[in-house]
Amino acid sequence: MYSPHFSLNTHGEGLSHSKTFADCSQMASNDHHVHDHHHHDHDHDHDHHHHHHDHDHDKSTTSWVGADGRVYHSHDGLAPHSHEPIYSPGFFSRRAPPLGNRDFNERAFTVGIGGPVGTGKTALMLALCKFLRDKYSLAAVTNDIFTKEDGEFLVKHGALPEERIRAVETGGCPHAAIREDISINLGPLEELSNLYKTDILLCESGGDNLAANFSRELADYIIYIIDVSGGDKIPRKGGPGITQADLLVINKTDLAPAVGADLGVMERDALRMRDGGPFVFAQVKHGHGVEDIVNHILQAWEAATGKKRK
User: Fold this and answer.
1) CATH 3.40.350.10 is the classification of domain 223-309
2) Which residues form the CobW/HypB/UreG nucleotide-binding domain (predicted)?
3) Can you give the pTM of this predicted structure?
4) Contact indicator for 12, 89 with CB cutoff of 8 Å
5) Run of H or E including 298
6) Which of 49, 58, 175, 227 stands 20 to 30 A from 288 (CA)?
7) Are the beta carbons of 237 and 266 closer than 8 angstroms?
8) In angstroms, how far is CA 27 from the centroid of its own chain?
């Protein structure tokens, strides 16, 4: 089971990032387990409560101790996983590199798109499909916790032919499907790649908090998308997606005046938190910034596959 490396160092003078983002250790018994979360001050867009709680498992949830000694659990048989503690957002310059010598015939170059709920992940999936589909063979996999709504959105809006889109229901821990146990996404991605001889695969994570990020076993290129509606504080709050994604997208810049967000502050903090790593200001719904995002993807695609863009 793959676990990405995160630096244990703090990052940025005057910024405190040594707190645990999510230390969700479990104690399993026959009928229940306990999550013991540390209190911390970052925003969440899903229902992971930040207090000690225990809950009974029904028949759809199982827990067990793996050979590595960790406690794993599975909701409705989906994406068995542990909750591994993340102690620092890490550094862009020390992020896990893409896997070397990967067989792109087995699974095409895969772009992972992550970020909190409502930031524009699905809108970006749609925009990328429309921008790339005439020149490249594409397929897409979307993740939702309990619905297939995002996949249905792509079908409804004609992003790709319906057969090239798969919708995955991850259950209540969407981060597990992109990091701790990626098999629930690898299966459909490999199937689509083989069926349609794809050049590029797009994989959208379920909406999660700032601690979520893709495993390099799953994503060759990682895009993390935030938006200004959460305020200009979001880049400096950090998190592995913000600091270590190959590209950070700051979306919905047109909303900045309405929410009082200072784009200059967001630019300053994004540069600082990402060690100068690339980021794009965008209004994806209106097409602004999409071409820049595509250029970043294709540069990485060329470098990884040795092919030239079409």
Assistant:
1) no
2) 110-280
3) 0.73
4) no
5) helix 290-305
6) 175
7) no
8) 27
